[in-house]
Each structure stands twice: as C-alpha cells, then as structure tokens.
Amino acid sequence: MSGFSVEWLDLRETADRRARDAGLLAQAKHWLRGDPSSDGRATIVDLGAGTGSTLRAFAESDDFSPNGIEWLLVDQDRPLLAEARRRHGRSHAVETCELDLAKISDLPLACARLVAASALFDLVSAEFVDSLAIHLETLCQRQPVGLYTALNYDGTTDWAPTHPLDDAVLEAFNRDQQRDKGFGPALGPDACGYLQRRFVEAGFKVSSAHSPWILDGADRSMMTELITGIAAAAANTPALDSDSLEDWLEFRLDKVNDSSCIVGHTDMLALPRGDST
User: Which end of the chain is more exposed for a tag (fewer CB within 10 A), N or C?
Assistant: First the structure.
C-alpha cells in the first residue's frame, strides 16, 4: 500500500473529523457496548490505522469512555504506528501490529468486536473486500463482529470557482485511483458501493451515509496539498496533455485562498443481521 506521511495525515484530520458521519459513529459505539455475553470489554481492530485517527474520532466525543475498550492498531508503516503509540499509549489500551494488510489470513481479527478503517477501502481491490467479507462472516458464526469504515472516496469533486478542465482532471484522477495500491487493482470511487453489496450478500445489515470534505480558504494548506496531489495523479494517465494540466494546476493554486471544494466520501457500518443490539 502507498505510504502516507504524518504531516499529510495531520493536515487532513480536521477535515476528516468534520466530514465523518456522526450518526454512524454513534451506532458503532453502541455496537461496542451491546454484547450481553461479554465481560464489558471490547476490542476494535483498526486496519490501516496510521497515527490513530479512528481512535481519536471515537475518543473525542463526549459520550464515549475508553474504559473497557482495547485498540489493536494494524498497519504496515512502522513510523506511523510508532507515532500512534507515542500519542495514545498512555491514555488508552493500545497495541500495535505491523504487517502486510493485503494478507487477509494474517490479520488479527479473531478478537474483534468491531473492525474499523478510515480512508482505506478506496485503496483496496475487490478481491480484498471479498476475502474480508467471507472472513468476517465466518467469524460471526462464533461471535458477532461488525465493520465500521469511514471516509471512502466516492469519485466526486466540485470546485468553486470552476475551471473548464475540472471534469477532465477529475476523470484522469479517478482513473489513477484505480491503480494497484498494493492490494491489486484498487476499487477507488467504486469502493463503498462494492462494500455494501458484498456485505449484504454475506448476511450483514448495512447502513451508509455521505461524509464529504467541505473545504474553503480556511483549509488552504490542505487544499494546496490536495490540488498538487490531484495534478500529480492525473499526470499518470494519458487523458490530459501536460500543458492543459499545468494550466489547471496554476489556476487552482492561484485561487486557493478564495476557493471552495467538496470532495465526496461515504461512511459505512455493517452489522450481523439478527443481532439484538
């Protein structure tokens, strides 16, 4: 999987926090506390955990206590996991696990009450989702486990002011999003739709909600990184010539203080059907 820097993850986290759907997050928290057969403890296995953004999303709400919640943060980026331990090792029950996320059979999911991920599933392949759905379906035969996944890119980006090449750049960017990111051909914008279908087929009750980034001049540092990242990704496809792409890039960077941008994402919660919680 492509690596991400601590700086970029920190830069996007404020927008992620605003975007994350509060209703699905509340349902995920309720699910954690709703197992009558447990001893009051529940484990969240966070895939692609990075520096712990999902943990912070849970912990920053007033109605959530860390008591009884154990976090297993899984990533293949050692420096990001070290940063997660530095930030949260003393305030939460946190363990970290460094391994290749693409190897479903190696993921430590057997202990999970909830499997979580943020901004991960648009990077993975259909085969990864298929394997995960089958694996969680099998685990549910022993003890119910849910899946909560937030901030999956949906392929939409709307800019104001507009530029004549916005649609062409978006098409090129979305095509690049489906390159292999370490899991096989990535689902990219199709991620959440595919997730929903596969987990319904696997016997889960699935809920979803829009969770768009809504950015303006106050987010100019993040928007600058977003613009340059989009242009770099679009340059990997033959859909646009370099002069046209450079024109779009210069326009967007010049207008960054006076622009707004909505980037579509979707959150999803999949819970076993028939569970009383």
Answer: C
